[in-house]
């Protein structure tokens, strides 16, 4: 597939004649960095300029190419900024109208000059007109294009004409130098109808007039399938390779004894669901191996992931290795600590929490305990891994709600795992409540084995979700009163458009004051700017039902578990992603009482916002919500990662190409003979950074 020397796909775009830093900057906005990127910049529609239409035969609204002689030029208006040019081709006459034209254009408007124009035909009281046609002076016989003309996505300051010309000449050079057969298409075309690479690019940029244009525009043409399949495969294969690297390392085999497992389960205040048992078995099977586990557990909010994590940890503890648990917030780390202490200390294992806010002496003591192996279960936030923590022997790393961390922390963690003092790599368990749609799992999580906790513990009440406009806030406050009167509790979440945490906290503060005035029950406040100790004591009071209504910023989003809370009010839900709303809503409906979620929106809602809130009303299935979020707002929203460049495709599309994601492993079998170099070239072409999803 590789091009010959004279066409360097990966040469920087500035190598191209006529591309200075200014144009390079514009191109970068379109994600075009190297020469080859230009060839992957695809038209979104086409114009037919392959035939001249006689003026006599013009029809209104038609887009046409006409050619004729100028017979009159009239400048009109106060400052002569309006030009009316009369053109004839012997079959008829037409007016070309220009407003605010460039002086250079005026120079070319000379009587008897032959002009070729492209534009849309309109009519006024005098006859046919074309407003602002694209014009070309014809001095000698010039053939019309043989193919349709692409219309490309552009940015201000970059013209269609420039893009067309540049892409067309690049394509011509490429056609000259690229002589090799397309092995990728050879291998895949039996299972997917596709054109070979060069033919695909040519068809996309310069389709023949009789080409299936609908299919090209909807990107379902065999030409596009060639590009889409390669792009999807490049993401998939880079992750598979990463997995191979990870699996080539050795880990300590951690087999849990039946006696410990049974004793632990017997002590639990509930029976494990079938789904939990199934996932625990999958994890224990992985842990028995001498290769590191890399498993992602997905389970909707409230599906009971914490106890699954504990049962996984049991295997590490039973083999005298340590467990590190990483939580996204201090509150959640605290909550985990409480659970793990209750579950593990009776078996003689010590659990401690590392947080960024410990006093120096306390921290030193804990670190020493970890280094000596006196503490077996270590819980913490990022700080746990950012600092230099020495384990005696780390057997298992558990990352809760990992998608919140973003890509870089995951990478840092990976490196940290490597640096463990023993030769073994720790096993890794990643837990997320954000269901990862299958398409995303195949394209961006192919390096992980995936387990799904696909049912909730029994006796859970469904949550009734209502959307209510701000002007009906009073009714919402009445609802709060009735909930509190029943000794149940509620959350009230404040959001703001601004990224500013300070503003968000201010909004929460004033809401708390207003609600406290309106209610004869205790209203508490928790936000991100508070000291950890303060947050903890508020949370503790809420756990003990000394606070009836907890006003919060989105800090409570993940993991908080208070089964007595039955009402969740979210202000300005239109500002949040669906996945985030789903997470927030999951804070209620955890007990046996009927629960409610009120989405208190600000009118007017955009059509998109309405559609999104409707989905929240209609379903409580996290997978459905995530699929919708993916198609409505893109992968960054689903994964809670703002910088989504690395999650974006150039040509492929999560929704449209859904079916192909399922075929990736099948393609892998067909493409097994591809060399490493060929594969890494493909990945480079689609800008897949092989390390981005390191886990
Ligand atoms: P999440 O998956 O959102 O992390 P948690 O682990 O916090 O969920 O569990 C939510 C609640 O469900 C907790 O109160 C937990 O004790 C309870 N729980 C977990 N598993 C079961 C079960 N099998 N039966 C009943 N309750 C359970
Ligand atoms: Mg959880």
Assigned CATH class of the largest domain: Alpha Beta
How many separate helices? Answer: 26
Mean pLDDT: 87
Radius of gyration computed on alpha carbons: 32 Å
Q: Which class do the helix and strand fractions yield?
A: alpha/beta
The distinct ligands, each listed once, are:
adenosine-5'-diphosphate, magnesium ion
Percent of sequence in beta strands = 15-25%
How do the strands of the widest beta sheet line up side by side?
11-12-10-13-14-9-15
State the end-to-end CA separation: 31 Å
| Principal-axis shape | globular
Q: Number of domains in the coordinates?
A: 4
Number of β-strand runs: 21
- Reported by name, the CATH topology of the largest domain is Rossmann fold
The largest β sheet comes out as: 7 strands, parallel
Binned, the helix content reads: 25-40%
CATH homologous superfamily title of the largest domain: P-loop containing nucleotide triphosphate hydrolases
- Extract low-pLDDT stretches: 1-5, 404-415, 417-421, 641-645, 691-695
CATH architecture of the largest domain: 3-Layer(aba) Sandwich
């Amino acid at each position: 597939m590789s091009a010959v020397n004279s066409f360097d796909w990966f040469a920087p775009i500035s190598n191209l004649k006529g591309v200075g830093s200014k144009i390079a900057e514009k191109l970068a906005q379109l994600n075009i960095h190297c020469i080859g990127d230009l060839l992957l910049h695809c038209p979104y529609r086409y114009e037919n300029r392959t035939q001249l239409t006689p003026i006599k035969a013009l029809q209104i609204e038609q887009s046409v190419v006409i050619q004729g002689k100028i017979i009159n030029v009239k400048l009109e208006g106060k400052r002569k900024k309006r030009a009316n040019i009369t053109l004839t081709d012997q079959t008829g006459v037409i007016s070309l109208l220009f407003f605010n034209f460039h002086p250079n254009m005026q120079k070319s408007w000379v009587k008897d000059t032959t002009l070729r124009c492209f534009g849309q035909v309109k009519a006024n009281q005098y006859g046919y007109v074309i407003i602002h046609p694209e014009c070309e002076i014809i001095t000698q016989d010039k053939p019309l294009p043989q193919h349709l003309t692409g219309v490309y996505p552009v940015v201000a300051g970059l013209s269609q004409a420039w893009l067309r010309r540049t892409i067309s000449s690049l394509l011509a050079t490429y056609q000259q130098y690229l002589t090799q057969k397309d092995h990728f298409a050879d291998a895949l075309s039996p299972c997917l109808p596709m054109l070979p690479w060069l033919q695909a690019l040519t068809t996309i940029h310069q389709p023949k007039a009789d080409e299936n244009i609908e299919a090209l525009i909807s990107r379902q043409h065999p030409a596009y399938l060639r590009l889409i399949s390669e792009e999807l495969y490049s993401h998939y294969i880079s992750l598979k390779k990463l997995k191979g690297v990870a699996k080539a390392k050795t880990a300590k085999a951690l087999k849990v004894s039946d006696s410990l497992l049974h004793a632990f389960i017997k002590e639990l205040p509930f029976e494990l669901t079938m789904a939990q048992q199934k996932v625990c078995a999958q994890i224990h099977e992985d842990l028995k191996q001498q290769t590191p586990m890399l498993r992602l557990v997905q389970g909707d909010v409230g599906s009971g992931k914490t106890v699954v994590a504990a049962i996984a940890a049991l295997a590490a503890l039973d083999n005298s290795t340590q467990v590190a648990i990483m939580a996204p917030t201090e509150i959640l780390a605290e909550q985990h600590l409480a659970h793990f202490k209750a579950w593990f200390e009776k078996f003689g294992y010590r659990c401690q929490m590392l947080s960024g806010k410990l006093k120096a002496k306390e921290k030193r003591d804990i670190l020493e305990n970890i280094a000596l192996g006196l503490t077996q279960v270590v819980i913490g936030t990022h700080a746990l891994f950012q600092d230099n923590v020495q384990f005696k022997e780390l057997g298992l790393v558990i990352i809760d709600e990992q998608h919140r961390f973003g890509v870089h922390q995951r990478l840092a963690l990976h490196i940290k795992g490597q640096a463990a003092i023993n030769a073994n790599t720790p096993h890794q368990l990643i837990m997320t409540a954000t269901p990862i749609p299958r398409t995303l799992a195949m394209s961006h999580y192919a390096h992980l084995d995936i387990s799904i906790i696909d049912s909730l513990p029994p006796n859970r009440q469904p949550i009734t979700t209502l959307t209510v406009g701000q002007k009906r806030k009073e009714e919402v406050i009445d609802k709060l009163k009735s909930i509190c009167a029943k000794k149940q509790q509620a959350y009230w979440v404040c959001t703001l458009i601004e990224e500013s945490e300070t503003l968000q906290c201010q909004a929460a503060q004033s809401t708390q004051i207003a609600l406290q005035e309106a209610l004869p029950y205790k209203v508490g406040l928790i936000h991100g700017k508070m000291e950890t100790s303060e947050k903890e004591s508020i949370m503790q009071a809420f756990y003990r039902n000394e606070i009836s209504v907890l006003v919060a910023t989105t800090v409570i989003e993940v993991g908080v578990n208070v089964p007595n809370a039955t009402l969740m009010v979210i202000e300005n839900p239109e500002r949040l992603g669906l996945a985030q709303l789903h997470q927030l809503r999951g804070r209620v409906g955890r007990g046996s009482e009927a629960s409610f979620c009120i989405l208190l929106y600000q009118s007017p809602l955009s059509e998109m916002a309405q559609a999104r809130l409707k989905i929240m009303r209609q379903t409580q299935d996290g997978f459905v919500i995530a699929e919708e979020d993916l198609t409505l707002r893109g992968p960054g929203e689903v994964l809670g990662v703002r910088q989504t460049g690395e999650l974006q495709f150039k040509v492929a599309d999560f929704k449209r190409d859904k079916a192909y994601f399922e075929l990736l492993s099948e393609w892998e079998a067909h493409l097994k003979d591809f060399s490493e170099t060929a594969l890494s070239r493909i990945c480079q072409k689609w800008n897949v950074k092989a390390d981005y999803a390191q886990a």
